[in-house]
Amino acid sequence: MHAINDDIERAAFALKAMSNPLRLKILCTLGDQELSVQDIVEHVGTTQSNVSQHLAKLKDKNILAARRDANRIFYRVNDERLLRLISMM
Fold first, then answer.
1. Model pLDDT for residues 49-87, shown as the tens digit of each residue
2. Are 49 and 65 in contact (CB under 8 A)?
3. Cβ(75)–Cβ(57) below 8 Å
4. Nearest Cα to 25, choosing from 47, 8, 40?
């Protein structure tokens, strides 16, 4: 029962983070691939500053993972279950 409650808490936490339309668009853009900040900016159609703020929030909530390669940062969805949840919506 404890594991089920943990899953429910995690799902509610993720849904709250995704309740912002731009954050949901970012997650849909990423899907199961890894993209640079600039690639994400081009896909979602807003400023790099705005995208970076939302990426930071998603990373802080452990929804995204990031890696640096030289001067570029790449993001990916941290949990495959989140991708399944998005695809069901």
1. 999 999 999 998 889 999 999 999 999 999 888 888 878
2. no
3. no
4. 40
